[in-house]
Automatic annotation (TrEMBL):
It is found in: Cell inner membrane; Cell membrane. It comes from the Bacteria. The chain crosses the membrane at residues 36-53, 65-84, 123-147, 153-173, 203-221, 227-251, 272-290, 296-315, 335-355, 361-380. It holds the Pfam family MFS_1. Residues 1-383 form the Major facilitator superfamily (MFS) profile domain. The keyword Cell inner membrane applies. The keyword Membrane applies. Belongs to the major facilitator superfamily. Bcr/CmlA family. It is a multi-pass membrane protein. It comes from Martelella mediterranea. PANTHER family: MAJOR FACILITATOR SUPERFAMILY, POLYAMINE TRANSPORTER 2-RELATED. This is Bcr/CflA family efflux transporter.
């Protein structure tokens, strides 16, 4: 259930990719880079919404806040199917993102309510494995819908899927927040919670590291259609190519869930981060030799190698950020979610907006964000990688 709730976010993003051209043509948006705002508006809404739903779930419980968010998501999805202008669509996508914030922040909060340490990392890896299945199938679903109708039907599909999740949560989700852990829902309490989170050095730095590395993912999502179709001209094979990277990340998440209990979050994630950074650096050097248009098989090979390593970062970095915040899991998850979602959306959009008909801006973005993430991680660990500070992680 938690995996599919988080998957609502990926579905709302990836299912749109095949329809961006049709949306632009229908609503009079000629600039392909501006069409990416359909994704950006959603991501910013989701980031901001998490600042609200985290404290709300700490006060009233996980389930009521989650149901409220799903109602917003369903309503926005229905309305988006009938919007007359591009500006209205962006506004509705922002609202849809606000509603979806509940699914992300509360899913992580529920897991943190029930698990800690390596146990949480294992569960988060399994959730991420299911979560990564969505990029495999979402573009194909979107393309299939476009074969039988217009892009408006994509939003009606999202409304139907989220309505099914609402019924499932209503009937089957127990409340995981203990009465003793409930916090007041007022400005002073929320500000006190922010102080607790931001004064925790490890949590804050891993939140920033998560934001930086997730910017790579958002940069890829916002540029994927242009790279695969405009640069490599693979046309109808775009959903298959996009799905292939999702398969790589799902396998990576499964491998992480099997190994994290033995080796620990720090060893796995930090080794993967170093490997990811080196891979991006080599990939960039090769890209420059080919003037930004290397053979597709070579591009995809580097992508698969890098993204297998990337798959070991998300679940472990999320867990390392949340581990010290179990007593305020809702607020902690909301700050993590807001920063990583809105921050990565804004940073990743820089990659998409700089698309120039080659793969160079994409790979430069990957390499730069990998370097920044590595620096933040080294600072978070006081220069000592691969070691838990006190007890086994």
């Amino acid at each position: 259930m938690m995996a599919l709730l988080m998957a609502l976010n990926a579905l709302a993003i990836d299912i749109m990719l095949p329809g961006l051209q049709q949306i632009g043509a229908s609503l009079g948006v000629d600039d392909e880079n501006q069409r990416q705002f359909v994704v950006t508006a959603y991501m910013i809404g989701m980031g901001l919404g998490q600042l609200f739903f985290g404290p709300l779930s700490d006060r009233f419980g996980r389930k009521p806040a989650l149901l409220a968010g799903l109602i917003v998501y369903i309503s926005a999805s229905v309305f988006a199917g009938f919007v007359p202008t591009f500006a209205t669509l962006l506004a509705v996508r922002f609202i849809q993102g606000v509603g979806s914030a509940a699914t992300r922040v509360i899913a992580i909060s529920v897991v943190r309510d029930l698990y800690g340490g390596r146990g949480m990392a294992e569960v988060m890896s399994l959730i991420m494995m299911v979560f990564m299945v969505i990029p495999i199938i979402a573009p194909t679903i979107g393309q299939s819908i476009l074969f039988v109708g217009e892009w408006h039907l994509i939003f009606l599909f999202l409304a139907l899927f989220s309505a099914c999740m609402f019924v499932w949560v209503l009937g089957r989700l127990p409340e995981s927040l203990k009465p003793a852990d409930r916090r007041a829902f007022n400005v002073s309490s929320i500000l006190a919670g922010f102080k607790i989170v931001l004064s925790n050095r490890t949590a804050t730095l891993y939140i920033l590291a998560t934001t930086s590395v997730q910017a790579c993912m958002f940069g890829y999502i916002s540029s994927a259609q242009q790279v695969y179709i405009d640069v490599f001209a693979i046309g109808p094979l775009f959903p298959i190519a996009f799905a292939g990277i999702g398969v790589v990340m799902s396998v990576s998440a499964l491998a992480n869930s099997r190994m994290v209990g033995r080796f620990g979050m720090r060893r796995l994630s930090q080794s993967a981060l170093i490997g990811f950074t080196l891979t991006m650096g080599i990939w960039l050097a090769v890209d420059l030799l080919y003037n930004g248009i290397m053979p597709f098989w070579m591009f995809y090979g580097f992508f698969a190698i890098g993204w297998f390593q990337f798959g070991w970062l998300g679940a472990n970095f999320n867990t390392l950020a949340m581990e010290p915040l179990g007593h305020i899991a809702g607020l902690g998850s909301s700050i993590l979610g807001f920063t990583s979602t809105a921050g990565s959306a804004l940073l990743g959009s820089l990659i998409g907006l700089n698309f120039n008909g080659t793969t160079t801006p994409l790979i430069i973005g990957f390499f730069c964000f990998a370097i920044v993430t590595l620096i933040i991680t080294i600072v978070a660990e006081n220069g000592k990688l691969f070691q838990a500070p006190n007890a086994p992680d």
